[in-house]
Design a protein that fits this description.
294 residues, mainly alpha, MetI-like fold, 2 domains, extended
């Protein structure tokens, strides 16, 4: 059965087309206006920050030359032609690598515990009093605002060189980061079980334990694993300020211009972080999937 497509009168169709063209032109105008504003802000930021493009262009060759040297041994041969010579320091570096992993692990455990203890006081839906809410959130903001490297410098000055400053620095920053993630998860929890436990005469702690915690524990663990990945990378840098780990050997190799050692250490760090990322990603996905089946 043939059907006819209705057509508008020419005047009405022309009016609609003109309105469509005006809308498209306005959208394009706003787009280019936004791009112009972005370009202006980038230029202003570069000018205020004293970014010298001329100096960058004049010295870019030094940077690429340094990168190129990382791929050659002291004999002048490419590093991949002699893996034994390239990774000569693995027995020594492996100890520092394990130290780095332990710094990240202990710092994550302590930071996760701190974030766990503060997150319930910082969650608006389970904390009725404004004072603990205000204090908990300000503490978490302070912990995650100050960079780990700054904490590490302070703790190195206080406790001396070694892994302890690195552990404390990572623990403090992790407390702030995980505490925020945790209390946002708590605020998204279903409040009906919580209200039911309260109505039955349960205390605040009992209400959290039996009504809120079962809903959020898998997300807590998932965020903790994700933070561990981040902390491994952070712990590798702590050695730059004397806070232990493989970063100390990396900084020494950079200062002494041991190019092949720098590249070997970078390969070891990248490979370690990659393996940890893959393993923790699988664990986190399994936890999320298990949570979805409940």
């Amino acid at each position: 059965m043939a059907t006819a497509v209705p057509t508008l009168p020419d005047a009405q169709a022309a009016a609609l087309k003109a309105a469509y063209d005006r809308a498209i032109a306005a959208k394009r105008g706003w787009f280019w206006l936004g791009m112009a504003a972005l370009a202006v802000t980038i230029a202003a930021s570069g000018w205020i920050a004293e970014v010298d493009l001329g100096k960058l262009a004049a010295n870019i060759g030094k940077f690429t030359s340094y990168l190129g040297r990382l791929f050659f041994l002291d004999t002048g041969k490419p590093v991949w032609t002699d893996f034994k010579e390239w990774f000569w320091g693995v027995p020594k570096w492996s100890g520092k690598l394990i130290e780095t992993l332990l710094i990240a692990y202990v710092g994550t455990i302590l930071g996760g515990l701190g974030g766990f203890l503060l997150c319930f006081a910082a969650a608006q839906n389970v904390t009725r009093s404004w004072l603990p809410l205000f204090v908990a959130r300000r503490v978490l903001e302070f912990c995650r605002t100050v960079p780990e490297i700054v904490f590490a410098l302070l703790f190195v000055a206080a406790f001396g060189l070694g892994p302890l400053p690195g552990v404390l620095a990572i623990a403090l920053h992790t407390t702030g980061a995980l505490g925020k993630l945790y209390y946002e998860v708590v605020e998204n929890a279903d409040m009906k079980p919580f209200e039911g436990v309260v109505a039955a005469g349960g205390t605040w702690v009992e209400s959290l334990r039996f009504a809120i915690l079962p809903q959020v524990v898998s997300n807590f663990a998932s965020y903790g694993l994700l933070r561990f990945e981040i902390n491994v990378r952070g712990a590798a840098v702590m050695g730059f300020v004397g806070a232990g780990g493989i970063g100390q050997d990396l900084l020494e190799a950079i200062r002494k211009f041991y190019y092949s050692d720098v590249s070997a250490l970078l390969v070891i760090i990248i490979a370690t972080v990659m393996i940890i990322d893959l393993v923790t990603e699988r664990i986190r996905h399994a936890m999320i999937g298990e949570e979805g089946r409940r």
